[in-house]
Structures are given as structure tokens and as C-alpha cells.
Amino acid sequence: MTAKVIDGKAFAANVRAQVAAHVAKLKEEHGIQPGLAVVLVGEDPASQVYVRNKHASTIEVGMASFEHRLPVDTAEADLLALVKSLNADPKVHGILVQLPLPSHLNSELIINTIDPAKDVDGFHISNVGLLGTGQKSMVPCTPLGCLMMLRDHHGSLAGLNAVVVGRSNIVGKPMAQLLLGDSCTVTIAHSRTKDLAAVCRGADILVAAVGRPEMLTGDYVKPGATVIDVGINRIERDGKAKLVGDVHYASAAAVAGAITPVPGGVGPMTIACLLANALTACCRANGLPEPEGLTA
Ligand code: GUN
After folding, report:
1. Is the peptide bond before 90 cis (omega within 30 degrees of 0)?
2. Active site residues
3. Does any ligand 1 atom lie closer than 6 A to the CB of residue 98?
4. Which end of the chain is least crowded, N or C, by CB within 10 Å?
């Protein structure tokens, strides 16, 4: 079998177009412009690239983008004061504090100071609890993007066996909660799981989020399964820099029914879902119906 390639780039472009259409309608019918604030502390090169891309994508869909760049030695009290002022600002519907933060800052305290209704990352402890109890919440962007692609491919996910490899707070745990919410039978596997390959071979849906380049080969894949590769690993091969996932693409694609490539799979969905979350937050803040198909 040769797997169907799930084109995340095209899917994300479609999500961004849907967001842009909703934003235009909000302006036209209600005079409201959704606003997204991004806070970057320090000059980490990878974070600077992310923040630049977020800013450009936000503008492109017609939202207001508020960028706050603070020096690396920013005092915690000053960052907390900025978050509180964004919480109080009616033009700001979504707030994202770029991680990782410099080590002198308490990330948990800062994230948990964001108004949960504006927490477009879904990292606030209230949103984690709401998701875990099946209540309306803000959902972390990468797992939300994976869920959208899975729903599109399968229609209903009910009764499917899903294995999530990786137990991070940002991807693995919320991904498992979302799949459970869609009535999958969910297993969370990790580095200490016994006979990981056998566990993975039981999966109709296999989500790889371990951060280890090409770890899951075709031997881990049930014939016909859907493989979602969340990994983004920079490696050097034949003297050249290369981006690979947590899945060994060639061997897995020979067995799977559908698979996301790296690059061009899950990656582009993260920013698209951030914009979708900012739109959802704006609709909720104004008592308007939420955009269909763009939430969990
Ligand atoms: N750093 C890398 N990815 C992310 C993300 O999705 N959200 C935040 N806040 N920081 C990040």
C-alpha cells in the first residue's frame, strides 16, 4: 500500500482562508476586529522566526497584531504587568507569550496570569482542566490542527484505536484528550512503554510526538493506519541540513493508509489554528456564535 499524503500546507491555507472570511464578516456586520498579542522576551533566533511568521499571518487574515518585544533581562514583575494590561485591553482577544522564556522567569506563573478566555495557546491551567473534563475551552494549536486533519480524513473517529506517542503538556496529553473527546480508544505511549512497536501496531490512528528523528519506522505501523507526524527535527545527512519528523517517512508510508509529511504536514497547521483560536476567543468575548469547523 502507498499512503495518501495529507497535505497540511493546503489544509492550513484553507483554514486561514476560512478565518479571513469570518474576520471580514465580523468587521462588516459588527464593526469588530479580532486582535492577537504576541509577547517575545529575549532574542532566541527560532522564537524570533516564529513571532515574525505569526505577525505576518495575523495581518494577512485581517486581524490586528500587537507585538511586544522585551529585553532578555526583563523583570518578572514587568512581564506580569504587561500580561495584565493585555488582559484588560478590549482590542486584544488573544494573548500568546512565546516559549521558552529566559530561565529567570517563572513560565507557569506567567501563563497562568493570562486571562483563560484570551489564552489562545490553551496552556492556562483552567483550559487544561476544562479540556480534561470535556468542557468548552481554548485548545492547544498543534493538537487542534491534528484533530482537524483527522476529522477531515476519517469523518467520525468514534471507536478507532488511537495511540499517541509522547506525553508532553503541549502536544501528547491534549492530543489524547481531544481523541478521547471524539470517542477514540486512546493509549498514551512514551519512552518507558514496553514493546512500543507492538503497541503502535494496534493503532488505527498513530500520532508521533516524541522529538526523536525518524524513530517510528514502518514496523510500528498497522497496514492502512493514519499516521500523524508532529515531529520537527533538524538533522544533518550527507553533509546537508534536513528537516525530518519522528516517523521514518519512506518505510511508514509504504504501510500506512494516510500520512502527514515533514515538512508540509502538521507544521503549517499550528499558526492556522492559532488564528482560528484568536477568532474563537473574539466571538466568545462578543457573545457571537463560534466559527464552525474551526474549534474542537
Ligand atoms: N514556542 C514554540 N511553539 C510555541 C507555541 O505553540 N506557543 C508558545 N507560546 N510558544 C511556543
Report:
1. no
2. 54, 98, 121
3. yes
4. N
Is residue 85 included in any domain, yes or no? yes
- For residues 93 and 210, state if they share a domain: no
Residue 14 lies in a domain: no
Ligand 1 centroid to residue 271 C-alpha, Å? 10
Distance 99 CA to ligand 1 centre (A): 5
Q: Is residue 178 part of a domain?
A: yes
Q: What is the pLDDT of residues 186-205, one digit of tens each?
A: 999 999 999 999 999 999 99
Domain of residue 205, residue span: 141-268
How many structural domains are present in the chain? 2
pTM of the predicted model over 0.90:
yes
pLDDT digits over 14-57, tens only?
Answer: 999 999 999 999 999 999 999 999 999 999 999 999 999 999 99
CATH number of the domain residue 41 falls in: 3.40.50.10860
